Amino acid sequence: MSILKALAITGVSFCLMAQAKVPDALTQAREFYNLEKYDDAIRLAREARTVPALEPAATIVFARAHLERFRQTSQAPDLDIARNAMKAINVAALNARERVELLVALGTSLYLDESYELDDRFSAAAEQFELALAHADVLDRASRDQLFDWWAGSLDRQAQQGSEGARRPIYERILQRSEIELAADAYSAAASYWLSASARGVNDLTRAMGA
Fold first, then answer.
1. Which own/partner pairs from 172-175 qualify as long-range (CB within 8 Å, at least 24 positions apart)?
2. Which of 48, 102, 129, 146 is the most exposed place for a label (fewest CB within 10 A)?
3. What is the pTM of this model?
4. Cα-Cα-Cα-Cα dihedral of 179, 183, 184, 188, to 10°?
5. How far apart are CA 148 and CA 184, in angstroms?
6. What is the pLDDT of residues 144-184, one digit of tens each?
7. Distance CA 128, CA 65 (A)
8. d(Cα 167, Cα 160) in Å, to the nearest integer?
């Protein structure tokens, strides 16, 4: 191989290396979040928040990682940090998926808040999740299934708090939405489960057993 040819190949290699993008802190934070490594996700999301272009989206990851850590440890500061962070988000700067993720985070924060007794936090959480479900086509299959489970689970907790007469309309609501989800994705694990559970909630035991 000639020296000129070798230099040319080396030059091309350096160009390709220069063009290869090193994952930014936000991308890495999301990866750690998906791997359930929430401490790392928080650290990198905090770093990404210092970059103006990344700050709104990074704050969502930051908040959601704190919420998930709260679910693991029940340390109140995590819930407070997540809520305060979400208050500062510029929603106009978010893309379609990020807006859905913010709604999920808001719903999760309501669902997890046990600081008040006899409140309607499960109903409020379900409303946030339902807003997210209206735009769930931007989510991947697993994320949509998880979102549906959060929504139905919130309504189920609401039903358990209410009177027997108030439960049936709630389970009918879950049942109808489960049918819609299964029509769109026959392999939705969450919708399959809640179809059976809500059928039982409306005392249709035959369908519950069949489902």
1. 172/198, 172/202, 174/198, 174/201, 175/199, 175/201, 175/202
2. 146
3. 0.83
4. 60
5. 13
6. 999 999 999 999 999 998 888 889 999 999 999 999 999 99
7. 18
8. 7
